[in-house]
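We were asked to recover a plausible sequence for a given structure. The inputs and outputs are reproduced exactly as logged, with field labels preserved.

PROBLEM: sequence recovery
POSITIONS: 608
GIVEN STRUCTURE:
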């Protein structure tokens, strides 16, 4: 979703802003723009399409400046045109914005009355005019921005500059991510830390309602009540090379192959120190011992992790769970249970639907919350009482891969902690689980070695319009995840069903043109699944089956088989999803789609 970067420095910031925009490209966007302050003038350049086009325009026009803001726009209000691209300008004020202003129509009417002329269809343009409106009276950019944002309903992260204040940048956030990068006699703002890694690793994470006035040597933050606020400077562990492509063709491919490392980093503390509630923070034991049920809230891939966790936690710890799509829970009248633990799962920790679902749960009186998240400084982690940080490292590809498998590892850990707290596993069982977890990265490496075979499968998918994924039990959420991956990056329409549900409707879709991908681990449901596969074969469907080593399914015409190592027991979903990730990656390559930045999608979905 939209990306923001800004800088105040004593050097030309144009290259810093362009590099920052490139690093924010993964968030998803369709146009880009920059505003640079040059001798009391705003030099604004906007282009549709990729940041390289903007970079070229900046180079051709020789644009430069010691202060500036820049933006990648993911269209919501108005088409992705140059006129709608940010920065938006009113008088000498320029604004970039991420989020959605819900009352923009009312404000637009009011500003028209005041004589302002609108030249875009965006909600953002009202912010530029509002700041200008208040600035005319006060001549104070910070005060004008504060008055303007007080009028806004909705979500925003904004950066504001003014042509008469060449060393000043004002930033504000409410509901959308924004941080300040702290340099030496230069400061920056950005939507996330990765954009600023070439210039600093020291960050201040703004809180909801904060407004900051940023100069060359000063940063002053006011909180939502207008009071001066001290915000800690945090040293990021992220290194610039973590977000570089290296030997890989795409980030998705790199991230798929990073999974063994990501898993062992995520599990390190558990396998070293054993199963203990402290893994979730100092209140871990008291909170996790008090709860009687769990509600998972998440979106997309993270929701699939929640669905898998439900099987683990109910079976191992005997705690009832439900998993809800965050955007549905948010607007549903639900019955609060003070003994329920609200578990949010998110790669980014900034997903607007998940964040508002958590806030909604809190407003209903839910006091116990746990965030499973890949970004330790994110809003979701800050809002939650307990947390477990997955150690996947920055995930750049829009399609979530290593974030998913590390979420699963963190959730399996949660199942073990809850089971131990309730006396459901003894020391011997604990050791067995820990051994299985220690072996997991190595087993994952063996699965990754199957990439050549998967690539061959993918050749059959290039011409397909549809695909059906089947799984049972623990592997039904994995089928859902396989289908999501395939549609997301290869644009092949894919559905997933619990295999037992096939005969209740979807079997009507099966013919020779419908590839059916089945996950067939050697678990208690294997024989049932085999019967379901016969139902497919009998209708002429072509089967692609991912099996375990000891599963007796024969390869033959129209039954293609890929064999994973021996059945991994409870951990099997973490391995079985990997061939599906690789299948969607190679199918997308066959189709020639933009793997890391699929059309219409954004990495971090910061609007509802
Ligand atoms: C996954 O491939 C998707 N890009 C998407 O479903 C994603 O998982 C979802 O938007 C939730 O994101 P989060 O984990 O950052 O909250």
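RECOVERED SEQUENCE:
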């Amino acid at each position: 979703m939209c990306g923001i970067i800004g800088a105040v420095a004593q050097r030309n910031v144009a290259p810093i802003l362009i590099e920052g925009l490139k690093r924010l490209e993964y968030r998803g966007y369709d146009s880009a723009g920059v505003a640079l302050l040059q001798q009391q003038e705003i030099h604004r350049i906007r282009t549709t399409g990729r940041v390289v086009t903007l970079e070229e325009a900046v180079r051709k026009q020789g644009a430069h400046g010691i202060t500036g803001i820049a933006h990648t726009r993911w269209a919501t209000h108005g088409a992705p045109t140059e006129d709608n691209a940010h920065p938006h300008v009113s008088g000498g004020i320029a604004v970039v914005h991420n989020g959605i202003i819900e009352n923009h129509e009312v404000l637009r009417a009011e500003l028209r009355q005041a004589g302002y002329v609108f030249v875009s269809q965006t909600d953002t343009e009202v912010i530029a005019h509002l700041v200008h409106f208040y600035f005319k009276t006060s001549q104070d950019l910070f005060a004008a921005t504060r008055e303007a944002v007080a009028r806004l309903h909705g979500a925003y992260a904004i950066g504001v500059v003014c042509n008469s204040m060449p060393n000043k940048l004002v930033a504000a956030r409410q509901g959308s991510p924004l941080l300040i990068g702290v340099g030496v006699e230069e400061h920056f703002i950005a939507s996330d830390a990765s954009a600023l890694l070439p210039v600093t690793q020291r960050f201040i994470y703004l809180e909801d309602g904060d407004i900051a006035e940023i100069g060359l040597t000063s940063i002053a933050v006011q909180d939502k009540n207008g009071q001066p606020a001290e915000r800690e400077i945090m040293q990021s562990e992220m290194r610039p090379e973590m977000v570089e492509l290296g030997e890989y063709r795409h980030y998705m491919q790199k991230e798929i192959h990073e999974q063994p490392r990501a898993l062992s980093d995520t599990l390190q503390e558990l396998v070293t120190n054993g199963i203990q509630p402290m893994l979730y923070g100092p209140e871990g034991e008291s909170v996790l011992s008090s709860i009687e049920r769990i509600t998972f809230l998440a979106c997309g891939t993270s929701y699939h992790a929640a669905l898998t966790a439900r099987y683990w936690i109910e079976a191992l710890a005997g705690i009832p769970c439900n998993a809800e799509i965050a955007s549905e829970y948010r607007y549903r009248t639900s019955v609060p249970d003070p003994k329920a633990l609200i578990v949010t799962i998110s790669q980014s920790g900034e997903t607007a639907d998940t964040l508002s679902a958590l806030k909604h749960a809190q407003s209903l009186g839910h006091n116990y919350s746990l965030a499973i998240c890949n970004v330790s400084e994110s809003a979701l982690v800050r809002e939650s009482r307990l947390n477990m940080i997955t150690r996947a490292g920055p995930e750049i590809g829009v399609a979530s891969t290593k974030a998913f498998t590390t979420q699963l590892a963190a959730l399996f850990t949660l199942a073990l902690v809850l089971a131990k707290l309730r006396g459901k596993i003894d020391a011997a069982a604990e050791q067995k689980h820990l051994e299985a977890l220690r072996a997991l990265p190595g087993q994952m490496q063996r699965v990754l070695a199957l990439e050549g075979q998967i690539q061959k499968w993918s050749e059959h998918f290039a011409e397909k319009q549809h695909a059906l994924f089947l799984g049972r039990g623990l592997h039904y959420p994995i089928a859902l995840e396989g289908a999501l991956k395939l549609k997301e990056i290869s644009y092949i329409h894919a559905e997933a069903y619990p295999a037992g549900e096939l005969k209740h409707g979807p079997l009507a879709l099966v013919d020779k043109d419908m590839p059916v991908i089945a996950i067939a681990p050697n678990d208690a449901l294997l024989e049932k699944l085999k019967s379901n596969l016969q139902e497919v074969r009998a209708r002429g469907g072509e089967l692609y089956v991912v099996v375990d080593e000891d599963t007796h399914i024969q390869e033959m015409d129209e039954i293609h088989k890929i064999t994973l190592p021996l059945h991994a027991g409870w951990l099997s979903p973490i391995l079985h999803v990997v061939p599906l990730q690789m299948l969607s990656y190679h199918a997308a390559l066959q189709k020639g789609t933009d793997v890391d930045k699929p059309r219409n999608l954004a990495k971090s979905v910061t609007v509802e």
